[in-house]
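Sorry to interrupt, but I need a hand with the structure work. Could you write out one complete protein record for me, on any chain you like? Just paste the record in under my message, thanks.

. . .
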Amino acid sequence: MRQIGPEHIDVIFTALERQIGVMKGEQIGLIVCGGTALAALDLVLRTTKDVDVLGKVEVSENNGLVLHAMKELPDWLEKAAEKVGRDFDLPEDWLNLGPAAQMETGLPNGFEQRLKESRFGEYLTIYYISREDQIHFKLYASLDRAGYHTEDLFALNPSEGEIESAAKWVLTQDVSEGFFLILRSFLKEHGYDDIAARI
C-alpha cells in the first residue's frame, strides 16, 4: 500500500495508537487536514499519499480546545509512525508537518469550534478540519499549486457565500498586490466575477 484510501484511514490510525503505547508515548491530539481529512469525513473520497498534520490540540479544564503549533513530531510519535509505515508500506514521511506553518500565519475565525474529533484509544485523538475550513485552505492552495487542490475545492461544492468568505480570509495570508490579482483572476476564471469585484 503506497496510497492511503478512505478504507485505510481508521485502520492506520488504530495501528498508530497501538504503537504509541508500545513506544511509551503520551496522549496527543493531532489536527489533520488535506486529503486524509476529506476522505475521513466523506467529503471527497480519493486516495492520498500522506497525513498532513497542522498542529496539536490540548483539552483545557473547561473542555475547550487549545491549539498549538508544532515544529517537529515527538520522538516517540516519529518512531511509532515509522513502525506503522513499514507495516503498511507507506511513504517514509507519511505522517508529516507539511502544512504546520499555517498555525503561525493564521486560521479562519472559529476554526477550533469546527474541528471534528475522532478518538482511537487511550493515546491518539485526531481532529479533522471541517468542510468550511477545507474550502478556505483549498482556495488558498489553488492559487499557488492548482491541480488536485482546485479539484478538491470544487468537489466540496462551495456556495458563492463560502467562496467569498474563503477569498476574504485568503487575502489575510498575503497582502501583496500581486497575490490579490492572482486571486481575482482565479475567481473570474471560475465564474465568480461578482465576488472578484467585491473583495
Summary: The chain has two domains: 6-130, 132-198. The two ends are 44 Å apart (CA to CA). Residues 6-130 form one domain.
